[in-house]
């Protein structure tokens, strides 16, 4: 049976690519003050060299920090800290110390200036190699210079998000896991 398909406005077509894995992008000011941003638009771009991309609006405070320091971290959170991760994406580090106010820990990274988020289960440390303006966002391309993960979840060369309850955004303030657990955290 062929189902009828509804029209989706081009401005909302990105939602057809959901759910998207949520990450916390660590960055810092030139004087070392840590900050982080919640994003759903991240992706691997190349294996050799290892490149990842993150899409950030120039309106975000973190955008200017990444441009100025030339690096960032990608941190993989779990559903255990979902509410904090959600709030990280709704307040600006320009006015608030997100780490202090939300009770997450900015920890020194191994190879870059930007912090990792201790409570996350995996971390990619990236040096900024290129920035591309893509409409109303900037695609920051980073070369992965260090990566590490909790050994409970990275086995035989594979990372299993079903076990660690990775966060996937369905849209707005609605989230799910790959095991089907679904929740909302209020307003988006």
Structure in words:
With 188 residues, this protein is mainly β. It has a single domain (20-184), classed as Roll (Pnp Oxidase, Chain A), CATH 2.30.110.10. The protein has four helices and 15 strands. The protein has helices at residues 61-69, 82-88, 98-102, 161-164, and strands spanning 20-21, 23-28, 34-39, 42-46, 51-56, 71-76, 106-107, 116-117, 122-134, 137-149, 154-155, 158-159, 168-171, 174-176, 182-184. It has a seven-stranded antiparallel sheet with strand order 3-2-6-9-10-5-4. Strands 1-13-14-15 form a four-stranded antiparallel sheet, with no helix packed on it. The radius of gyration is 17 Å and the shape is globular. The termini are far apart. The mean pLDDT is 93.
What helical percentage do the residues reach?
10-25%
Poorly predicted ranges: none
State the fourth-level CATH superfamily: Electron Transport, Fmn-binding Protein, Chain A
CATH architecture grouping: Roll
The CATH topology: Pnp Oxidase, Chain A
Number of helical elements: 4
Radius of gyration: 17 Å
Task: Show the helix and strand layout.
Blueprint: E1 20-21, E2 23-28, E3 34-39, E4 42-46, E5 51-56, H1 61-69, E6 71-76, H2 82-88, H3 98-102, E7 106-107, E8 116-117, E9 122-134, E10 137-149, E11 154-155, E12 158-159, H4 161-164, E13 168-171, E14 174-176, E15 182-184
Antiparallel strand pairs: 1-13, 2-3, 2-6, 4-5, 5-10, 6-9, 7-8, 9-10, 11-12, 13-14, 14-15
